[in-house]
Amino acid sequence: MRVIDADGHVNDYAAGEEISKYMPEGNRSSVIFPVLDHLHWQYLRKYRDGIGNPGPKEWDTFLEQSGIECTVVYPSAGLAVGRIVDGQWAIAACRAYNSWLYEKFVNASPKIKGMALIPVQDVEAAVEELRRAIKELGMRGAMLPSNGEGIKGHLGAKVYWPLYEEAEKLGCCLAVHGGCHHHFGMDSFSTYYPVHALGHPFGIMVQAASMLAHGIFDRFPKLRVAFLEGGATWVPFFMDRIDRSYNKAHFQVDLTGELLVGPKPDEKASDYFKRHIQEGRIFVGFDCDDSGLGFAVRKAGREPFLFASDFPHEIFDAEVCRHELNELLSREDLTLEDKEAVVGGNAAKLYKLKG
After folding, report:
1. What is the pTM of this model?
2. In the chain, what are the domain boundaries?
3. What number does CATH give the domain 4-351?
């Protein structure tokens, strides 16, 4: 069975000096990205392991030992790209990160595929950097932050339409990835685990709702977007909630009285969401120990779900990863076709990876 890691990570925290070499002169600093939020690291952590720092050789060994064909890697520190307020710094940071990722990982191993960072603070520059990342650096697509002060409103906003148009032209995907958990109503929590538990799905649900309800997948029917690191079970919850809220009292119309983009009056909102899933526009990452995966597959179909190792964040070695994969493949609430789709087939479609 083909196994593809749809969401691995590089440790760019430990590579500040390396990445800074790609920054413009006069702007070289070992600290490229802001902190994820004021909650992420500021707690007593006797039992917290630090994330590893695998290079391309270590990544290749992990993939071989865990039986994974290839990985698509995302940043660690760079998950906070949406927090950058200065547009010029965002442009420089994204270009530097992408050049470093290409030289250090993508160009070093055919098993490591890259996802670029793009400066959402400046959409014109984001379009330009996406084009460079795909055409010159061979990236599979680009990451969009789920949260941050530098995001212009929300990802469904009209200002981002040129970016989605360019992604369609290039045939690449985009992926909304959780990471920053501030401003979700938990900023005063003094215990971190619930912030981590809820922050990831909250962030990607907000952006999934913004893109769905503002017609992004209607306007750009060839666009492929993944929503990563929030698990699978937000999907049935999301479908139930939008069905309950989308009724005659909540329709919105334009100035002429015509319905805005979205579900039709006789269409359930969850069916509208599911239609975009089945037509290959929406994908969702899950964790191997996600006990609700089977129900999510029954509710939304097998088409969107993507296996993610999360190495080296919460999975530290190949033996643990292989054990989790074996448990997933032995589940009785998933059919063989479900398993083939979620551990590799769907990722191949999202990232356009040839067999």
Report:
1. 0.95
2. 4-351
3. 3.20.20.140
Token look-up 């009209």 returns 158
Q: How far is CA 334 from each of CA 39, 237, 283, rounded to the nearest angstrom?
A: 36, 19, 18
SS (H, E, C) the chain: CCCEEEEEECCHHHHHHHHHCCCCCCCCCCCCCCCCCCCCCCCCCCCCCCCCCCCHHHHHHHHHHHCCCEEEEECCHHHHHHHCCCHHHHHHHHHHHHHHHHHHHHCCCCCEEEEEECCCCCHHHHHHHHHHHHHCCCCCEEEEECCCCCCCCCCCCHHHHHHHHHHHHHCCEEEEECCCCCCCCCCCCCCCHHHHHHHHHHHHHHHHHHHHHCCHHHHCCCCEEEEECCCCCHHHHHHHHHHHHCCHHHCCECCCCCECCCCCCCCCHHHHHHHHHHCCCEEEEECCCCCCHHHHHHHHCCCCEEECCCCCCCCCCHHHHHHHHHHHHCCCCCCHHHHHHHHHHHHHHHHCCCC
Q: Which residues of 73-107 are buried (b: 16+ CB within 10 A; e: fewer)?
A: bbbbbbbbbbbbeebebbbbbbbbbbbbbbebbbe
Distances (CA, A) of 229 to 57, 201, 322: 25, 7, 19
pLDDT tens, residue order, the chain (355 aa):
999 999 999 999 999 999 999 999 888 888 999 999 877 766 656 655 667 899 999 999 999 999 999 999 999 999 999 999 999 999 999 999 999 999 999 999 999 999 999 999 999 999 999 999 999 999 999 999 999 999 999 999 999 999 999 999 999 999 999 999 999 999 998 888 899 999 999 999 999 999 999 999 999 999 999 999 999 999 999 999 999 988 766 666 667 776 667 787 788 999 999 999 999 999 999 998 899 999 999 999 999 999 999 999 888 889 999 999 999 999 999 999 999 999 999 999 999 999 7
